[in-house]
Amino acid sequence: MATHSSYSAATLRGDLFGGLTAGIVALPLALAFGVASGAGAAAGLYGAIALGLVAALFGGTRVQISGPTGPMTVVFASAIAALGGSFEMALAVVLVGGVLQIALGLLKVGGLVRYIPYPVISGFMSGIGVIIILLQLAPLMGAAPSPSPLQALAKLPDTLAELNLHALALGLMTFAIVWFTPMRISRYLPSPLLALCLCTLAAVLLEWQVPVIGDIPTGLPELHLPHFSLVQWSLIFTLGLTLALLGTIDSLLTSLVADSITRTRHKPNKELIGQGLGNVLCSFIGGLPGAGATMRTVVNVNAGGRTRLSGMVHALFLLALLLGLGPLAAQIPLAVLAGILVKVGLDILDYRLLKRISGTPKPEVIIMLSVFALTVLVDLVIAVGVGVVLAMGLVTWRMAKTAHIHLEDDELLDVPNDPEHPGVRLVRLSGPLFFGSMAEMLDRMDKVDQVLDTHDIVLDCRGVDYMDLTAVFAIEDMLQKLQHKKLRPRLLLDDDALRQRLLALQSAVFTEQTLCMSVEQVLDGCCTSDERISKP
Question: Which pLDDT tens digit goes with each residue over 374-383?
């Protein structure tokens, strides 16, 4: 990660080229998202400029490119529809979402994203790569783009029927330039930008009829005041919360992808504050809400972007187009952008895990493939949510396997066989006792009821390193059940903090007599010798 002291001319050049290339890629997407939202193409451009600039200045991921994204656009379009077509009330939703993002950052919620397991991140990254490739198939062949990867696959026969050979030639030329340009040239002029200039110039000089970006809105945005209605407040807040959570997940996942590519570490809470501030500004200028954009961020990095200046250049480039330089970008063929993005899609695939998939444990592979499939076929956020749940389930299962109930020949152990103190039984527990391991323990303890000569039950918990509330309540129910059967249960502990925690519950079974801190206390109530208990 570049610092002020190490900032060089090469870093500056990379930031300029990276931001410029990302801005060119972001332009048609911003316009398309604006149209799709129902707010107009200009709203998409305003959102890309405002959020892109503010998030780059105040965010916590130096190479992140922010702007309107598909999921955020869908929620904003839903807000306009749900609020009777009122654009000002929809902007109130954006304002609420931005404020909530700032609050999440201040509450340090962003750090939770670092607990997402690598198989989930891997599946997400590879899924994003495949989505990018599928979505660019139609523009690469000169046909109208599809809004989703599934629709892109379904329309593939129609796309082939509408094949524009000139567009395909431009796309393949672009891809070839990006792929084969030597590093010694890319170091000074990034290959995506080189391909963009050369292939656009070729299309203009040869007068090929191919789809281009087209007209770009001009002029600064007007000031808008978000409108709140007490009648609709519940709906506005709910939609705002949805925007905040979606933007948070989207942005932080993009930050993780950026970290993986650049081998750096982002500041998640700072990123949330920057994203929130940007969305608040969008609400006052009539811009679309947005988040960190994975595809544009990867384009930025691949073109040389290394610091937050690249994100600022991206936003300022879009602002320059808005102020009158639009005709310069209007003639860029969409097939040229598609050629650049196909290379981006290939680069973002997680080859690190794909190359080692045969040697990776099957549960992790299943998680990765599940996230990959859901990312491509369903939804990015749902994919990550399912992946995290699967990973948590795997961890729970593995932890449960470390909990043991030590029995001999599946029978409870006799402590001393003293005629005056018959039927003393010992159960040794070890490992973590929590919701995942209690079912097996309760099943094994049911055997106690079948032992007719048992009078005292000693649960040796000195080997237990963790006990959650589920385990505490399960043990309480078990002790009550044993007492109901005229048995005398005791717990042998070596953790005074745990003993005080159990006593604080004020349970009828967790008492000074049943919670013992030494073998002597246990034996005082049931036997006279401690030879069989003292061995841990």
Answer: 988 887 768 8
| pTM for this entry | 0.70
For the CA atoms of 171, 175, 178, 180, what is the dihedral angle to 10 degrees? -130
Instruction: Determine how β-strand 66-67 pairs with β-strand 291-292.
Output: antiparallel
Cα(344)–Cα(380) distance, integer angstroms: 18
Provide the β-strand partners of residue 456. 424, 488
Percent with pLDDT over 90 in the chain: 35
Report the DSSP beta bridge partners of residue 515.
Answer: 491
CA distance 192 to 181: 9
| Six token digits for residue 128 | 């994003």
Separation between Cα atoms, residue 493 and residue 488, nearest integer Å: 16
Rg (CA), the chain: 31
Give the DSSP H or E segment for 41: helix 41-58
Residue 231 near residue 356, CB atoms below 8 Å: no
Q: Give residues with Cβ within 8 angstroms of 34, minimum separation 6.
A: 40, 41, 42, 43, 44, 45, 47, 68, 288
> 252 near 291, Cβ under 8 Å?
no
Give the residue carrying structure tokens 């963009």: 196
Contact assessment for residue 25 and residue 299, using Cβ atoms and an 8 Å cutoff: yes
What is the amino acid identity at position 105?
G
pLDDT of residue 218: 83
Q: Please give the span between the terminal C-alpha atoms of the chain, in angstroms, as a whole number.
A: 52
Residue with tokens 């030597």: 182
Name beta bridge partners: 463: 430
